[in-house]
Amino acid sequence: MTVEALTHDEDTAAEAVTASAPQAADAPAVTEPTSSPSADSDSDSASAEEKPAEEAPKPKRGRPKATAASAAKKTRTVELILTVTGTADGEWQAELKNGSKWVAKGLEIPAAAVSRAAKELHSDLSGPIDEVINQARDAQAAKVAQLEAELEAAKQALADLDV
Fold this sequence. Notes:
The chain is an alpha+beta fold and 163 residues long. It folds into two domains: 3-55, no CATH class; 80-161, no CATH class. Helices cover 52% and strands 14% of the residues. It is rod-shaped and about 115 Å long. The chain starts with a helix and ends with a helix. The relative contact order is 0.07. InterPro entries: DUF6319.
């Protein structure tokens, strides 16, 4: 092969790769080698060995260049998981996870803050959370009433001993 034939083959291969860049991922670009008749008569076995190498050019290293469709700005999403846990006693805790890394774990949160945050986020969230908070409030009120009754009984017993 002559030098002109080799450089011509490289130029046409480069043009074919740049012209069909979106198709390069789906199917390899096929280019027809052009060579002089004297090169074909020299060795057919050498051209048969070179043919597969010419059909599939080596992929370029590095990142592929952005096309018009992929050049549009893509929104980057961040995965944050906030878990708020409440007990029947009205104690609330929050945990925050960023991907697989814990940012905060076991933070004590007042029930009023949980209720306000739920109302700010969405009404569908605030309804069930307020129900749980109200049940805890009612349970604590019943516990206070029971303790007050016990306190009155203890005061009465103390007054009976002072006679």
